[in-house]
What does this fold into?
Amino acid sequence: MVISGAMALPVPTTVNDFFEPGTQPGGLVADLVDPDTCANCHAYYDELAAPHDNWRKTMMAQAGRDPIFHAAVSIAEQDAAAAGDTCWRCHSPTGWLRGHVSAPNPTSGEALMYDDFSGVSCSVCHRMVDPVYVEGVSPSADQAILAAISPPALAEPHSGSYVIDPSDVRRGPFNLDEDWAGTIFGQWPGFHQYAQSAFHTSSRLCATCHDVSLPHYTRQPDGSYALNALDTPGPSKHQQFPEQRTYSEWANSLFAVAPVDLGGRFGGAGDGSYSTCQDCHMPTIEGMGCGLADPPMRPNVPRHTFRGANTWVLRAVQSLYESDSGMGEEEAMIASGENAKMLQDASDLELYRVGGSLVARVVNYTGHKLPTGYGEGRRMWVNVKFFGAGDQLIAERGAYDNTEAILVNGGADTKVYEARHGIDEAVAALTGLTAGPQFHLALVNKKYKDNRIPPMGFTLAAFDAVGAAPVPSDTYADGQYWDDTAYPIPAGAVRAEVRVYHQVTTREYIEFLRDTDATPRLSNLPPVPEIYDPMVTDTSGKLAYKLWEAFGKSEPTEMDAGDIALGCLADFDQNGTIEVADLFGFLDAWFAAFGMSGGTFPADADGDGSVSVSDLFQYLDAWFAGFGGPCP
It folds into this structure.
C-alpha cells in the first residue's frame, strides 16, 4: 500500500509487519518447562555455582516482570498496533511461543499466564538451536529441525528470531556422558534428554535478543529509514532500523577476533582473557552443575549471573512480586550490587593536565559500546570538581542534583554519553508528533545522537554496515576505544576530583512513561502493593514512576574515580619548578599549533579549545611571574 497523509495513532501496523523467521507460536511438540521444575536439581546446593539460584536474581529471569518494560510495551502498543509482538518475543519467550500474545489473543500481553512471566527461562535458552547447521559440530537432529522451519531461520538472529527444539531436548556446552562416567552412576543418569551444543558458548546465541530491530522500517540509499508498506514483513536484519546493536558491536570488535587479555577484570576461572559475551557476563568457577548425589565437579561452570547495568529494577520487581520473583529483598540488593560492580569493571579513568585544561579520558574495556543496549533513559557522564587553596570547591562540571534527580544545566557543561533516537519529518507528518528526539520506541526511525564509546577494534565502516555507527559519524577515529573531554581549569584551582557516573533511568524518561502511558495496567499482573498507592498506579507508566521514586530515583552508580594535582600553568613540563625549559617547551608547542582549534592542545593556555596570540601572552605573564620558583 502507498502511505500518505496523516494517520491517527496507533499506526495501523499488523503482526505481519513485525514478523521474523524462526520457531513460531504453536510450533513446539513439548511445552517449555517451568523454571521451578529445573530448580529441583539445579538450585539450593551452592549459592555461587547453582544455575537456578543465580538466574532467578537477574534481569533475564525478571524480564517478563520488569515494570519499566511493562510501561514501554504499553506505549508501544498505543503507538503502533501489534508492536507488542516484537517486545514479548524476548521478554516472555514462553508466553509468545505458547501463542498467548498472538491471535486470537492480543499482543498487549493480556492473555499471558503465571509462568509466562518468568522471563528468559532455563528451558528457552537450553532448547535453542543454532540456526546455522555445521556438520560434525551441531547436534545431528538439528538438520531436520532447521529443514522444517519455513521461511528458513536467520543465519544472523535478532529480535527474538530463535529456533527452539520442538522436543524437550536440553542443550548445553558439556558432554554429560563423559562427565558422569566417573561418578557413582557410571554414566549420565538420563534425568532428561540432552545434546551437547557449541552454540551455547557462542555470542551468536546472545544476538537472538541483544540485537533488536524495528522491522517496519527499511534503510534507504541515503541512510535514512522509511516506513514499509503496511502488513508486510520487514527486510533483512541490517536493513531494519537498529534499535539496539549490542551483539553487532561485539561482532565488529577486537573481542570477536581473539581473546583480549584484560588481567581478569571481569572474573572467571580462565587466564584473565575475554572474548565471548559469556566470558564476561557468565564468568566460570569450579563447581557442580547440579545438586544430585555425586555429580561431576567441573573446573569451568558458567555462573548464571548475567551481570549487566541495571542497579535498581531488581529491587522494584522483588517488592512487587515477592515470592513470585523467587528473590528475597536481601538477594535483590546483592544482585543489584553485582551489577554495580560490573559497571565499575567496564571502564577506567585517566587524568591529565594539558595546557590550561584538565583532560578526562574514559577507556572502554567492554566488548561493545559503553554504555550499550536499551538506549531510552540510559546515560553516562563525567563529573569534575575543582578545588582551590584550603580545599575550597570553586567550580563543578556535570553536577547532579540527587533530590531532583537531574543533571544541573542539563549536562551542558560536561560530556554525557548516550544514544538519542527520534522521528524524522516524514514520520512526524504521519503521526502528528514533533520531529526530533523522542522516547516513542515503536516509532523512532532516526538517530539524533550516539556518542557512546566504541570497543577495541572499532572501525566506522564496519559499524556503519550493521547500523551501529556513532552520530555524528566523525565522533571517533578508527581504533579509538576511549574518549577525552577537556575542562578549562578555573583560576585558583590546585586540584580536581573526577568521577564517571552511570544512570539506568533518567527523570526525563520516567516522566515520559508516567505521562504517556494511557492504557490500564494488565489485569493478569498481581495487584499493586498498598505501599505504592493503587489509586495513582492504574497504568504501568504511573506504577513505574512510583517505583522509581521509592527506589532512589535511579541513583547514579559511580563507575570510576580519580584525583589530580593541577600544578600551575607556568610549569609546562610539570616537574614542580618554573624554568627556562618550560618557556621553550611552551613556545615549541605554541608555534606547532598556532591557529588550530576544535581540539585539546598543550599550548592552549586559556583553555578555550584554540591556540592564539592570547595563549602566548597568558603563558608569558604566568612564566615571568613565577620564574625560578616552585608552583605557587
Observations:
- Residues 329-345 form the longest helix (17 residues).
